[in-house]
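Input record (Table S2, row 259):
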Amino acid sequence: MEIVIGSRDELAELAADAVETLLRRRPQAVLGLATGSSPLAVYEQLVRRYKDGLSFEQAQAFLLDEYVGLPDDHPERYRNVIVRDLTSRVGLPDGALRSPDGGAADLLAACAAYEEAIVAAGGVDLQIVGIGADGHLAFNEPGSSLASRTRIKSLTEQTRRDNARFFDGAVEAVPRHVLTQGLGTIMEARHVVLLAGGPAKAEAVRQLVEGPVSARWPATVLQHHQHVTVLVDDEAASGLELAGYYRECFAHKPAWQSL
Ligand code: GLP
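Output record (GLP complex):
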């Protein structure tokens, strides 16, 4: 795990650099995209770079998760959110964006089809991900199997309350059920870039980086991944015992080493 502590803008730039380096090396790269507020500054950077000539035309993208049962045109359907925030703004063709089908009549079949689509695309090269205050990754809530695959999950009360801000503050409007890539699915991405900011994420980040690996804090499974970059601001890093060490490592990182 590489831990980088910096300002929101610095972190967004680093994450966007990783995406740009990948796309320039491999224009057909497979990107893993996340919704939520944490990656928004990265997406703004990518839009800027697209305007400066970075092409997403041959890329493919997979979304981490989706609410179950929202109408196709609901503004908070994650597919609509990511189209609005990123893909329509960087010229990623609509057909190149895949997301779990939370409106499917057969949800189990939709989950299996999603897993197959990721494999058929050759797997995710770079996965952008946030973290929930309760340590969830995508919508893998506490208690999720560390080996889980795309499946239906029930949200915790806390997550529904956290996400109510996108539903005019109405907790009861936030769907109870979601489809989410499993922790085992996310672990197969070749590079995972996690972003977290603000004091509400401090405990989840402390557990992620320095806690024991446990389904109680699902994101801790990333300690078993070979290539994870954790990008956190000062507030989200405030619970880290070894913050000084992480800062020193990054400050003295060899120039030839990328993220
Ligand atoms: C949601 C999403 C997660 C996201 C989390 C944190 O529950 N399903 O993918 O990481 O919220 O969101 P935010 O970045 O807005 O704090």
